[in-house]
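User: I'm putting together a teaching handout on how sequence relates to shape, and I'd like one worked example. Could you take DUF4920 domain-containing protein from Rapidithrix thailandica, show the sequence you're using, and then write out its predicted structure as tokens right after it?

Assistant: Happy to. First the sequence, then the structure tokens directly below it.
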Amino acid sequence: MKKIILVVLAGLTFTACEKKPETQTTATGQTPDQELAQVEHKTYGETIEISNAMSLDQMEEKLQTIDSLEATVSGKVLEVCKVKGCWMKLQSSDNNIVRVTFKDYGFFVDQDIVGKEATVKGMAKKQVISRETLQHYAEDAGKSKEEIAAIQEDKVELAFVAEGVVVK
């Protein structure tokens, strides 16, 4: 009987001393992998699905035959409003540029995202931008007074009103 008790106690001792792998957590209570995933993609506005995004070039091609298009598109951030991040410009691989504003002025993007890849979901359309609005945008972009004064005409450009943005 003593031998059985000793064997059971020895077995319990070995299993109690077994080292189990530790899951590290950060100050936020997340694992480093979870925190890294959040750092890699930052979302502004509504949460959007980015896996079905088209290129800006594909969107422009579709807008040749229709006036507006609800779409999810990706491009490189070329410029961001320097005042409060209330608009940004995306550039395609063919250097086409689309100005993105945010639905109902409901959110802004960080100003340090220039050069990063962004995916936006919302409504794209061609529109006439007034000279005054173009001058306002130039002022927001930090252009010189001479550059702002040189804007003398309205311009037809591709505009995008985003419901949500994901920056990688």
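A couple of points you could highlight for students: Residues 36 and 137 are 34 Å apart (CA to CA). Strands lie at 42-45, 54-55, 68-80, 87-91, 97-102, 117-129, 155-167.
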